[in-house]
Every structure is written in structure tokens, then in C-alpha cells.
Write a structure and sequence with these properties.
Layout lengths: L2 E4 L14 E10 L5 E4 L12 E4 L4 E10 L2 E4 L7 E9 L5 H5 L12 E4 L2 E4 L2 E2 L10 E5 L12 E4 L15 E2 L6 E4 L2 E3 L5 E5 L8 E4 L2 E4 L6 E6 L9 E4 L2 E4 L6 E6 L8 E8 L2 E4 L6 E8 L5 E7 L2 E3 L3 E5 L10 E4 L2 E3 L2 E5 L5 E4 L2 E3 L2 E4 L8 E2 L5 E2 L10 E4 L2 E4 L8
Length: about 425
């Protein structure tokens, strides 16, 4: 398992495994008998084993697997053949996250690896091309304290690919396609004008993805959703988690949309294993959207198991919306210990699709087809009734791992 580094001062033709380049030259020689790189300048040391190396032949990314001498190392991967006068860089950070996840160095990133991203704004949309595995996810970590990259501060991935004053990209910022098994932490995501502006998946992808201590900002007026995750293939658990996150949208629908696709195979309803907890989710959109929407597609055996814990949910029209006849009542969705505000607090297609406890609903219509659970209160009903809103805005909060004063501007450049 390798740690890789992204920095604003990096170069995508570096080895990728540290903040500084450990060795560089233009005298590299490879041969078709052994997987070795030799250099008469003798720049290599035993401590370079495990470091990434870029070799100009075929624009190849490798890792050093063995130290032979100060003038010879063995590299991983396919044999590069016989070549002379090759440029090589050992260690050093890359410039773009796309080099690690989309194209370029993807062949050297393995399940279980971690990618640390130094402070700054990275203007690039990402169609993720590689996957981790169950139990060995690929971790993308904003290095807000600078411990790995040397660059402390807010780490922002932005769909405003030119600058903040030009029109943003109409491409989803983070598209999983058919790729899966990732964790993201301490990152700020800025969406553009795509229909699903920040995160989406397609058939067979987006499984086993989690976001922790992240912020999602999609204030463009075009998107329908900020994060849109759909279960596919039908009946397969998403294993999706969002923890300690802030999600802000001006969505025409709901900034967070989870779509569960029913299945005709098997013998019972199925659990999507989606957890949203300790998060602030806000939609100030101009249409009849909500903050969180759980949607369902047709199928004999229905999906459920979207679970919400300890969240503040502020919707323009709906707080939490469970839509359609194909959500399970056998494995219901759940909401607990949360504050929900919207023109409609929680709106459920059929009673039993959403259960909960110890929630506070503040709304002209606190609930539709929701049965109050233990400790639930609202401004009109429940186990207790109150008239004053309970949301308290603090003096400071942590934004993707960076503490800032309440209502302070972004400050990112």
C-alpha cells in the first residue's frame, strides 16, 4: 500500500510518492533482459525502494522494487525494452488528481493506496477510471494539516475549470462510471452546471464509496442534483456513507438523491446499506425540490435501508422525500436524532417506508405518511409539540477539516 502526493507545485511526470524529487536525470538506460534502469550518474539509494518513478520511455509510471547499486534499480510492471538517454524522476508530487485517477499514472495506483492532496484549488473534472476493492479502498485525502505534502490549508476540487469568473464545466465533477471502493476526506467540492453537478455513478459503479469531513457546494442554478447515486445492478447494496459533511445546493430537485432499483431476482426486499450521519444538508433551490430524496425504480423486490442519523436537514420544499411505490416497508428507510425543516418536513409515499425516533420537525406540514416514533417532536404533533425553531448557528465550524469563523468567506484562491 503506497502513499501518493498531489501538490500545486507538482509535475505529472514525477514519481508521485513525496513532496520533493529524490533523484532525476536524463541518462537512464533500460534493457529487454531485466527490468532495470541504470544511470552512470549513480543517483540511486537503498531508501528509494517503494518510491514511484517516472521513466520517459512510453511515459511510464513504475515503482522501484529493488536497489541493485547506486547506478541500478529494478522497476515494477512490464519490461520497457532496450532504450538509452531516458529521462527519469524518482519521487516528487504530481500536479493533478486526474493523473492518478483518470489517465497517466492509473496503472501504478493499487487497491489500498492513499492519495494525499495538498492545499489549493484543483480545477479539473474527474471521470474515475480505476477501482479499489472491498476491504482495500483507494483513499483520497485532503492534506489540510500539511503532514504529507507540506502544503497545509483548504483543499478544493472545482468544476470551474478556467477560473472562478468564467462559466463552469457542464461535466460532473466526480463521476464514478463503473468504478467503486473509494473514501474521500477533508475535501471541498465545487460543482458546475452538470445535471448531477458533483457526484454520480453509472451501471455497476459507485459501490463502497464514503465521504468524511467533506463539503459540497453547488450554487449554480442548473443542476437537478448535487450528489446522485443509483443502485446498479438492481438489488446490489450501495454501501454508501456520508459522515460529518456539509452539502449546499440550489438544486431544482434534491441535492442528495439516492435511487434504489428494484429487482426480480432473489426472494426478498434488499438493504441498500446507505448511511448519512452528522451532516448539514441544505437546499435553497427555486423549485419544488427537497434536501434528501430517496427514489425507487420498479422491481418485484424493493430496496430500503437509507439511514439518516444526527443530521440538520433544511429543504426549500421537502426536508426528506421518499418517493414512489417501490420503496420497501420490510426494510424501511430510517431517520434518527435529526432536525428537519422545509415546507414539508418528511414526505413519504406510503406509511412504513420511513421510520424514526428523537427527531425535530419544523414545517407547515411536518409529516406526510410518517408515524411519529419515540422522542419525535414537531411544531404541531408528535410526542412533544414546540413552536420555536431549534436550529442554533454557532460562532465557528469545521469546513472540510479547516476551522473557520461562522459566515466567513471561503478564502480559497
Amino acid at each position: 500500500m503506497t502513499n501518493w502526493c498531489i501538490r500545486k507545485t507538482g509535475v505529472d511526470t514525477n514519481g508521485g510518492t513525496g513532496p520533493t524529487v529524490l533523484a532525476t536525470g536524463t541518462d537512464g538506460v533500460t534493457n529487454n533482459v531485466t527490468q532495470t534502469l541504470t544511470a552512470v550518474s549513480a543517483p540511486f539509494t537503498a531508501g528509494m525502494v517503494g518510491q514511484g518513478i517516472y521513466i520517459s520511455q512510453g511515459s511510464s509510471y513504475r515503482t522501484i522494487t529493488a536497489f541493485n547499486s547506486s547506478s541500478s534499480v529494478t522497476y515494477s510492471g512490464a519490461n520497457l525494452g532496450t532504450h538509452i538517454s531516458l529521462t527519469y524522476n524518482v519521487g516528487g508530487s504530481w500536479l493533478t488528481l486526474g493523473n492518478a485517477l483518470v489517465s497517466g499514472a492509473t496503472a501504478v495506483i493499487a487497491a489500498g493506496d492513499s492519495i494525499y492532496v495538498g492545499a489549493g484549488v484543483y480545477r479539473q473534472t474527474l471521470a474515475v477510471a480505476i477501482s479499489g476493492s472491498a476491504g482495500n479502498v483507494i483513499s483520497v485525502i485532503g492534506d489540510v494539516d500539511g503532514a504529507q505534502t507540506g502544503d497545509a490549508g483548504q483543499v478544493t476540487l472545482s468544476a470551474y475549470t478556467t477560473n472562478d469568473k468564467s462559466a463552469p464545466s457542464a461535466t460532473t465533477l466526480l463521476a464514478f462510471g463503473a468504478t467503486s471502493y473509494y473514501t474521500f476526506s477533508f475535501l471541498t467540492f465545487i460543482g458546475g452546471s452538470a445535471v448531477n453537478s458533483l457526484v454520480s455513478n453509472t451501471a455497476g459503479g459507485g459501490l463502497g464509496v464514503s465521504f468524511t469531513d467533506c463539503c459540497f457546494n453547488s450554487s449554480h442554478l442548473t443542476p437537478s442534483h448535487v450528489i446522485s447515486i443509483t443502485s446498479s445492478p438492481p438489488g446490489v447494496a450501495l454501501n454508501f456513507t456520508m459522515d460529518r459533511c456539509i452539502l449546499f445546493g440550489l438544486s431544482t430537485m434534491s441535492p442528495l438523491a439516492i435511487t434504489l432499483t428494484g429487482t426480480s431476482s432473489g426472494s426478498a426486499d434488499w438493504d441498500a446499506l446507505v448511511v448519512i450521519r452528522n451532516s448539514l444538508i441544505v437546499n435553497l433551490g427555486y423549485s419544488s425540490g427537497g434536501a434528501i430524496a430517496v427514489l425507487a425504480n420498479t422491481g418485484t423486490h424493493k430496496g430500503g435501508g437509507v439511514r439518516i442519523y444526527g443530521c440538520s436537514i433544511l429543504g426549500n420544499y421537502y426536508g426528506v422525500y421518499c418517493s414512489g411505490a417501490y420503496l420497501s416497508t420490510t426494510i424501511p428507510c430510517e431517520i434518527h436524532n435529526s432536525f428537519v425543516m422545509g415546507y414539508n418536513g418528511v414526505d413519504v409515499y406510503t406509511s412504513g417506508m420511513l421510520t424514526g425516533s428523537y427527531n425535530s420537525f419544523y414545517s407547515p406540514t411536518p409529516e406526510t405518511n410518517y408515524t411519529y416514533g419515540t422522542g419525535d417532536v414537531s411544531n404541531s404533533a408528535g410526542t412533544g409539540t414546540y413552536l420555536a425553531p431549534l436550529l442554533e448557528l454557532g460562532q465557528s465550524f469545521k469546513w472540510a477539516g479547516v476551522i473557520r469563523q461562522f459566515m466567513a468567506p471561503d478564502g480559497a484562491s
